[in-house]
Automatic annotation (TrEMBL):
Keyword Cell cycle attached: yes
Keywords (A to Z) from UniProt: Acetylation, Cell cycle, Cell division, Cytoplasm, Isopeptide bond, Lipid-binding, Membrane, Phosphoprotein, Transport, Ubl conjugation
SUPFAM superfamilies: CRAL/TRIO domain, CRAL/TRIO N-terminal domain
Assigned protein family: Belongs to the patellin family.
Subcellular location field: Cytoplasm; Membrane
Comp. bias (Basic and acidic residues): 80-118, 126-139
CDD domains: SEC14 (cd00170)
Name by which UniProt lists this protein: Patellin-3
GO MF: lipid binding; protease binding
Pfam families on file: CRAL_TRIO, CRAL_TRIO_N, GOLD_PATL1_C
GO CC terms in record: cytoplasm; membrane
Organism the protein comes from: Thlaspi arvense (Field penny-cress)
PROSITE patterns tied to this protein: CRAL_TRIO, GOLD
Region (Disordered): 1-139
Phylogenetic lineage: Eukaryota, Viridiplantae, Streptophyta, Embryophyta, Tracheophyta
Amino acid sequence: KSQSKTAKVNMAEEPITTTVATPENQPPAVLTPPGESKSTQEVWATIEAEALAKATGTDPPETTSKPEEETAAAQPEVSPEEHHPPKVTETETASTDKKELGDAASQKDEAGEEEKKRIPQNLGSFKEESSKLSDLSVSEKKSLDELKHLVRDALDNHQFGSNPKPEDSDTPEEVAIWGIPLLKDDRSDVVLLKFLRARDFKVKDSLAMLKNTIKWRKNFKIDELVDEELVDDLDKVVFMHGHDREGHPVCYNVYGEFQNKELYNKTFSDEEKRKHFLRTRIQFLERSIRKLDFSSGGVSTIFQINDMKNSPGLGKKELRSATKQAVELLQDNYPEFVFKQAFINVPWWYLVFYTVIGPFMTPRSKSKLVFAGPSKSAETLFKYISPEQVPVQYGGLSVDPCDCNPDFSLDDPASEVTVKPGTKQTVEIIIYEKCEIVWEVRVIGWEVSYKAEFVPEEKDAYTVVVQKPRKMKPSDEPVLTQNFKVNELGKVLLTVDNPTSKKKKLVYRFNVKPL
């Protein structure tokens, strides 16, 4: 498989072409004035030679054109085994479609602007603290050393209470947390650092928090819980999927699933079911944490995405009670595991909730929060997560792991292009070999016209229509997957015409298999 690199797009009034990826092993291109043919290029060379001759008083050199056979022979031969990746360009022109959707789009734009005013997009800048021990300040290193010394004393005196101290024995207590034995593994430094940061590097407070966490883990029987086979129906409520642009695993919390009364009652209707819900969530979190990298400089935090679409809200007392209990447990026993908290599809009532709790949050906690209303959710996610890593239901290209996509995986990168209002964007994929090419394309919310065609390199050959112009509606399938068998050299053109008055986000990717 071979495919394009991420595209950069320059926008302007006139058509602009931006080269994204150049094929390997191709001879260097000859630069020719725009719109000039090869024969005209030779004329330019002759004119330059005559001008040089006049300036120097010498006879102009003879310019002869090599026969086509000689020119072809001069090119390096390419063995059939060599693979030539396609070259991709993106071109913007004026829209040729009628602006039938203009008024409706304008109204949606106004609604989107109003939504943007009401919903805070980001509550401050936040740069995650480094987990590299070498990046710690002098005072932070000192605090870490002091905490390690206190932990050593606590282990020697069996103060964590994981097991009673044997009589007439100097054997220190053995304590492990998230599968990492304290002070017996270099990764425990990163664990201790989390407790220090949660308590602003106050060493005694950090030790107290660590002791309470280990005591809670013993009472809750966390190590046994991790290996239990718990049954629940919450696979669509909470799940891990992909990574963000910095390598953090991404966890999705889909509260709208609880609109299903049967699922809601099955999860929260009595105290026993709420306890089971809590145990399944703790088990899920523990298993996810144990996959993190606690080495110095590793990724040991999670990107949390909270989908508020159709959320039951704060009126459901059972859900409110279970959520409150879960939040308290996480705050007390899982310090510094959240890289960012993104709230998408945010409804109006959540702003009321935030207004109440906002004043009690620290500036640092606020800076980890990101909010996006329904019309901005996909755009917001793409700032932090590549489209190929984002699930289809949230604007990306990634299908559910349970489904099968034989053509693409999370490792196949996608390109993003902004299609400005009233413009047409064409993605040109130049093919250098016989192959089968498959591509995925989507425009968030559609409301555009889309077509695909293959243009052979031979001048007299006919253009092949792969997809005739089709007006895509928001209700149409979110992702189009198409393929074409290339038996002659040429280029595939994917064209999106945006007649609306708002910008659109085009996402695409492709793979080729040489024939």
